[in-house]
């Protein structure tokens, strides 16, 4: 892993939405998803090196604002992210995010980045990585229930990492499914729009649930799901928000990222405190079994964890080192005497007088 510190006199590297989009298009989104999945897999193998904690969350009736910090001892990252489902009706993003990567030794920020696109990428890559270990072999069909901002990223991650060929779409808003259909047909996928969740899950090997409403909903009932399916449940991501029938969880082997956080925010918030789950890093590191048979029902109760953001930021940082494709922010003061912070104000005043 390349390690560098931004030179304060040059400013702090900044990755705008435009820069992120240009970089992804230059590398190719499927290539990015494949590479990011591999980086996530590597970082999950060194799970114990990360200083971890549940994210800080400020909840309100309309949504949540969260801070997600983590460090591996050399680098520190933190993401600011919100979740406000009703923002769609205000023509705003339901999720707005940005992240910072910093050098632990000096405490200096070494990159600031948009994280709306990057969060969608890392969420999709994490979903595909987990499915690599938990989904039935030779899976070809993915159902996406909830066809909002995440849906295309999810579909392309499963295509590029697992070889998924068929996508089944359902959303309570038909225009969302049509949007996803229009975006995905250019990628060589067989895409079908369904009229109900019951119709959408028929014949699916993998089911992703990613709905927006902040409510204890039942998107999938136990009766709808046969044995042998893998469910990628990523929509339940805050207290009071679930998507799965509790009976469905009781039938399945359930896997999570970081149990203390998932107990608060995931599908398992509706289960008793001693309900058994397995942290996914244990599967990658050979400490626990993943899918034990083709007939087993598996569920990934994914709420998103800070180490995934860390991996995504470090991955983008490395791509930008190779291309130099970023602007610089004048974010950190750099005066001749580090102790004389006041001189920055004096210098600015003097400069303004000289210009006048």
Automatic annotation (TrEMBL):
It is an enzyme of class 4 (lyase). It comes from the Bacteria. InterPro entries: NAD(P)-bd_dom_sf, ODC_Mu_crystall, ODC_N. Keywords: Lyase. GO terms for molecular function: ornithine cyclodeaminase activity. Its EC number is 4.3.1.12. This is Ornithine cyclodeaminase. It comes from Pseudoalteromonas translucida (strain TAC 125).
């Amino acid at each position: 892993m390349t390690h560098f510190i931004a030179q304060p006199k040059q400013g702090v590297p900044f990755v705008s939405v435009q820069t992120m989009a240009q970089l992804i298009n230059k590398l190719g989104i499927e290539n990015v998803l494949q590479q990011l999945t591999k980086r996530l897999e590597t970082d999950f193998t060194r799970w114990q090196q990360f200083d971890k904690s549940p994210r800080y969350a400020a909840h309100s009736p309309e949504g949540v604002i969260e801070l997600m910090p983590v460090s591996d001892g050399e680098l520190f990252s933190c993401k600011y992210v919100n979740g406000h489902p009703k923002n769609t009706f205000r023509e705003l993003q339901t999720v707005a995010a940005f992240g910072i990567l910093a050098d632990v030794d000096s405490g200096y920020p070494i990159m600031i980045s948009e994280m709306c696109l990057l969060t969608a990428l890392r969420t999709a890559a994490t979903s595909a990585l987990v499915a690599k270990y938990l989904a039935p072999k030779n899976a070809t069909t993915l159902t996406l229930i909830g066809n909002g901002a995440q849906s295309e990223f999810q579909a392309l991650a499963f295509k590029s990492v697992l070889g998924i060929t068929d996508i089944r779409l359902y959303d309570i808003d038909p225009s969302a499914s049509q949007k996803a259909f229009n975006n995905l047909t250019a990628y060589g996928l067989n895409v079908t729009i369904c009229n109900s969740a019951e119709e959408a899950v028929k014949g699916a090997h993998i089911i992703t649930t990613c709905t927006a409403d902040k409510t204890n909903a039942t998107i999938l009932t136990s009766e709808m799901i046969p044995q042998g399916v893998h469910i990628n449940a990523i929509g339940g991501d805050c207290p009071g928000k679930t998507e799965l029938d509790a009976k469905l969880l009781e039938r399945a082997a359930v896997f999570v990222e970081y149990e203390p956080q998932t107990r608060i925010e995931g599908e398992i918030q509706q289960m008793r405190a001693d309900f058994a789950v397995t942290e996914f890093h244990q599967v990658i590191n050979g400490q626990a079994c993943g899918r034990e048979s083709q007939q087993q029902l598996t569920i990934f109760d994914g709420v998103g964890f800070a180490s995934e953001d860390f991996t995504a930021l470090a991955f983008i940082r490395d791509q930008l080192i190779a291309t130099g494709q970023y602007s610089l922010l004048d974010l950190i003061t750099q005066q001749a005497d580090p102790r004389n912070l006041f001189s920055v104000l004096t210098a600015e005043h003097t400069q303004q007088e000289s210009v006048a």
